[in-house]
Give the backbone structure.
Amino acid sequence: MFRMSVFQSVLERLKDEEIEPAEEPAVAGGISTPFVGNLNAAGGFASTMVFDAYRETAGEDMLRPPPPPPPPPKPVMPDHLHRIKPEEIAEDIALGEHETVLSLTEKRRRFAAENHPDRHPPDFRANATLRMKIANMLIDEALRRLKR
């Protein structure tokens, strides 16, 4: 035991302490086929029997395919996306004379949350992108004025 590594000594000890495994429990048989019903050779219900049963009990309206759903209504552009002039966007941002870096950063975030192109349908993304560009330009200019 002194010439073995720690790992080898642990393995030897485990072999010495090994207990005989218990016998496996007997497996019970499954339910017999006649008890379940009419099954086909593949093990499932005969599909023709199921189809026939549905066809016999279905009404005429159930046999026709359902009508296609109506197309979704076309989205309407929100009013604020129509405002794309720099003066209108400055008014929406509500830039004032006594702005701080913190207040301008908060206004940028709030404006982006409402106007970011990813938040609008594809048809309105051009206006949303233009609004974001102008708003960022206005806020960047206000930040440059603060640093002077």
Q: What stands out?
A: The mean pLDDT is 84. Helices lie at 6-17, 33-36, 47-57, 60-63, 86-93, 101-115, 125-147. The first helix runs from residue 6 to 17. Residues 139 and 145 are 10 Å apart (CA to CA).
